Amino acid sequence: MKFSVAAAVSSVAALASVASAQFCPQATQFGTLIVSPTSFAAHDTVTINADFTCAVQYFGHVPKYTDYYLSVPVNNNGHEPDILLAHHEPAAGTLHENFTVEIPSAYYFSGASYVVTLKNTFASNGPDGTPYYSVGGVEAPVTITSTTN
Predict the structure, then answer these.
(1) CATH of domain 25-144
(2) In the chain, domain spans
(3) Alpha carbon distances (Å) from 105 to 31, 37, 85, 120, 121
(4) Is the predicted pLDDT of residue 147 greater than 80, yes or no?
(5) What is the value of pTM for the model shown?
């Protein structure tokens, strides 16, 4: 009896791990992004963590390039261009990026909502088999604590 109970528990655990490994919400198709801290000022150091596990293993969106921007996504009046925080060309097989970046001294606007945006550039094959590149992104909301108008 011990063997069958242990085997049953082992089988259930294996099925649960396969099921959880295959569950990737549509929102993860280009990666997931965590920024810490989420509130900062110019010259502060911020840690950025990106996970491409679902993007690669479930959606097939293998990053060729990853770009990280500080952006104003809503009600941008034309005075808030994206600020490039980092550009990477991940090594083959990379599923995670973890790095720190200093927030540049720039013109930040009070009342503006900011996000850190991750842009994942990945290759796909067209109907005739020739490759082309697409770009998809995810965002993490942040707050700029000091602003200039």
Answers:
(1) 2.60.40.1930
(2) 25-144
(3) 28, 17, 12, 25, 27
(4) no
(5) 0.81
